[in-house]
């Protein structure tokens, strides 16, 4: 669940350079998961017919995105933006008879760019919220919650957080809605506050846990799963996923692109490509059974 954040600081990057790769969890200098393959469906005429004329004439679907936020979007060693959202958008665009073009932007500028018409879609780990729905529609593609990670073999519990050091990505809901309110509750109860270790990216926060600088790591569940997969057995989830909410592709309010994109997603769900794309990135929980706009089923 992503909100504006700034770029990674230098300390942990220097530590990662000094240690083996297994000591770090990084969103950079890596490629697709093992066994990954690009999924490019053929255009579907009935879905092509739903695409707004200006986009159809252009032949390209542009999406604002803000890497790194693995596994949703990040740059590989050749600086190409990859990730599960990029794969879903590529497949959906192909279904609509379009090419897909990601455009890197500051996260805070993506929705304004959508309003200005300089991009077609926002694809950057957007949580579909009531506040955002006032100005945008969201084609929901995944439900994800918050979950904690710990060093393998530790016994860390979110039910007993006081006095712990918790790593988070700065200004995500893990910081603003999870860890800081828990710390305030600790203080109100006369206990030690949580030491909140805020990092500019999720990989930096996960690396802090791997290196023992933090007792736990709070993150969106797919982000934690990605970190666990790449931490060489050094970290593991602890506790259940909570506060589940939908991730969605943002489109202008009441735009005809919303139903077109939802129809493309429904096609990917029906033919199994949607499930294959998410599975390639290690995401097997929180999948939607049908295309949704603002959490409502779509009838095309």
Automatic annotation (TrEMBL):
User: Pfam families recorded for this chain?
Assistant: SBP_bac_3
So which domain of life are we looking at? Bacteria
Which keywords does this chain's UniProt record carry?
A: Signal
- PROSITE patterns documented for this protein: PROKAR_LIPOPROTEIN (PS51257)
Gene3D superfamilies, alphabetized = Periplasmic binding protein-like II (3.40.190.10)
The signal peptide annotation in the UniProt record is: 1-25
Domain Solute-binding protein family 3/N-terminal: residue ranges: 60-285
Name recorded for this polypeptide: Glutamine-binding periplasmic protein
Species this chain originates from: Corynebacterium pelargi
